[in-house]
Amino acid sequence: MRLYEILRQDGMRRIALRFRVANSVSWLRVARALLPVLLTVFFGLDVPISANATTRPRYGGTLRIEMRARVEALDPRELKVEPVVGDATEAAAERLVSLAYERLVRLDKNGQPQPQLALSWQADAAQKRWEFRLRPGVKFHDGTPLTPASVVAALQRQWGNDLLMSVSGDALVIESKQPQPDLLERLATGRSYIFTLPRDGSGIVGTGPFRVAEWQPRQRAVFAANDDHWGGRPFLDMIEVQMGVNLKQQFVDFELGKADLIELAPDQLRRATQDGARIWASSPVELLAVVFPAEGPTAQDARLRQALALAVDRAAIQNVLLQKQGEVAGGLLPQWLSGYAFLFPAAADVDRARKLIAESSPAPAPLVLEYDAADPLARAVAERVALDTSQVGLKLQAVAAGPASQAAGKLRLMRVRLADLNPRVALSALASTLSLGNGNDAEAAVTPEQQYAAEKTMVNSYRVFPLVHIPEIYGLSPLLRNWMPTRWGAWRLEDTWLALPEPAAPAGARP
After folding, report:
1. Range list of β-strands (E), 232-285
2. pLDDT given at position 24
3. Other beta carbons less than 10 A from residue 281's beta carbon
4. Where are the alpha helices (DSSP H) in 391-511?
5. Separation between Cα atoms, residue 150 and residue 156, nearest integer Å
6. Nearest C-alpha neighbor of 266 from the set 319, 333, 315, 314
7. d(CA 160, CA 361)
8. Boundaries of CATH 3.40.190.10 in the chain?
9. Strand, helix or coil at 484?
C-alpha cells in the first residue's frame, strides 16, 4: 500500500507538470483532457488514454479544413430540413453554422438530449407545457445578453406559430395543444439555432464558440475564437475552411501538410493507411440505393424489380468498393439507428433472380441506370450493379446523369443522407425523398415494431432496393488533437487543439 501511495503521488506530480497551463486557460476544457488520467490514477479504472492526452492542451493555431461542398450561406434560417441528396451540402452547412450558433439543447454521442443554452427543463405530465431555464451569463457575439425573450424571437422566426412560446419570469415556456414528447429532439436538430439581429443591421449573430471572421459564399470561411464563450475560450485561434475542393486535391494538400482535416473516399483509404495517416469514420449516415422509375417496364413488373435486387452482390460492394467501410443494406435505415436492420435479407440469390427473369413475359428490355457524374463512388457502384445484373441475363447500362436525368423509364442510383436521428422521422423522410408513398405510415409508427412493419412494406415493394450504408471518412493531421465528433459526424471543434511546437525560450532563460 505504501508503494502504491508513492506511485500515485509521483504520478500526480508528473500530471501537474505535463498539464501546467496559464491562468487564462479554461479549466473546464483542461478537466476534460485530464479526466481519463485522473480516473486511472485515483480509482484504478481501466480508462484508455489516447495519444492526445500525452501532450498538454495548448491555445493557438489555425485549423485548416477542406471540403467538397459549397455552402451558400451561414444563416441558420436558410438550413433545409428535408433529407440531403448527393454531395450533402446541407450537412456541411450545418457543421459550419454550428461553429457560430447554438441551440437550447444538444445531442450527446448517444443521441440523448443534453443542456446547451438551456441549463435545465421540465414538462408537465401530458408533455404539453415545457419550461426551460437558460444558462446564466451567456452573450451573443455582439455582447447582447441571452434572454428568454431573445430565444422566443429566434424560435418564432424559425418555427412560425407552430407552438405557443412565452416568457414566465426568467424562464422560457413552450406550450402546445398536443403532447410534444419529441420536443427536446426538435430543439436539438434542424433550424432550432438561437440568434439575434443587431440593431445596426449588420446581420445575425449567435452565441457559439467561434464567430464568423470572413465569409466568401461557396469558397471560403474563417472563424475566430469567441473569447467570451460561456464554456470557455476554444483552444484554436482560427478555423479556415476551403470549400469546393475535390477529393483528389484534398488528399494532395493533406500529404503536403496544407490541410489538417479532409474528407476521404473509400478508394483512398488504402493509400492513406499505407502512408500512416490517421483515419476516422462515422457510423453509416448515407444510404446508397437503386430507385426504380414510376413509369416503364420495371414499374409494372414486380418480378423484374425483385430480380434486380437479388442479382446484386452487396457484400462485394461493401468489401471491395467501400474497402470494408459501412455496411450492406437490406433495409433503408442502418442498424445503429433502427436496431432491426439485420432482419432484412441482403444476400444475393442469383438462381432465384434468373428464375424470376425467366418468368417475365415479354423478355425484359435493356435498362438504364443513371448515377451522379461528379461522384466516383457512384460510378463504381453503378458499374458493379450492371455487371451483376448481366450475370443473370439482364442488360443494364450505367450512364452518367445528364440534363435529361430522372427521365421516364430510367433507374437512378441515389445517395441520401439521414435526415434525423429519430428512426421514425428519418424513415418518413426517406420515404418522401425516394417517392415511396409510405411516409404517413412511417410518421405514424411509434414503436420499433411499427417502424419495422412500415419499413418492411417499403422494402418489399421493390420500388427501391438498398445497397449499402456509407459512413463519412476523414483524414486527420498528426497535429490535430482531441478530435471527438459524434458517431453520426457532427463536429465538436470547441475542444479540439493543435500540437504546436513549444515556443522558443528567451535567450539566457533557465530550462
Report:
1. 238-242, 261-263, 278-281
2. 37
3. 17
4. 423-433, 439-444, 448-460
5. 10
6. 319
7. 54
8. 59-100+208-282+472-499, 102-207
9. coil
Residues 50 and 145: their CA atoms lie apart, in Å, by 38
Cβ within 8 Å of residue 289, ≥6 positions away: 329, 332, 413, 414, 416, 434, 464, 465, 466, 467
Architecture per CATH, domain 102-207, reads as 3-Layer(aba) Sandwich (3.40)
Q: CB under 8 Å, gap of 24 or more: what pairs does 142-148 form?
A: 142/196, 142/198, 142/202, 142/205, 144/196, 144/198, 144/205, 146/117, 146/194, 146/207, 148/172
pLDDT at 503: 64
Pick the CATH number of 59-100+208-282+472-499 from 3.40.190.10, 3.40.50.2300, 3.40.630.30, 1.10.10.10: 3.40.190.10
CA 294/CA 436 separation, integer angstroms: 10
Whether pTM exceeds 0.85: no
Task: Extract the residue ranges of the chain whose pLDDT is less than 70.
Answer: 1-55, 80-87, 201, 297-299, 361, 363, 402-408, 438-440, 502-511
Helix (H) or strand (E) holding 103: strand 102-103
The grid coordinates listed for 5 are 501511495
The amino acid occupying position 511 is: P
CA distance 287 to 468: 6
The cell numbers describing 388, all together, are 451483376
List every span in the chain annotated with CATH 3.10.105.10. 286-470
Q: By the 8 A CB rule, do 493 and 510 touch?
A: no
Q: Is residue 172 within 8 Å of 134, Cβ to Cβ?
A: yes
286-470, CATH topology level:
Dipeptide-binding Protein; domain 3 (3.10.105)
The neighbouring-strand residues paired with 333 are none
Q: Are 374 and 87 in contact (CB under 8 A)?
A: yes
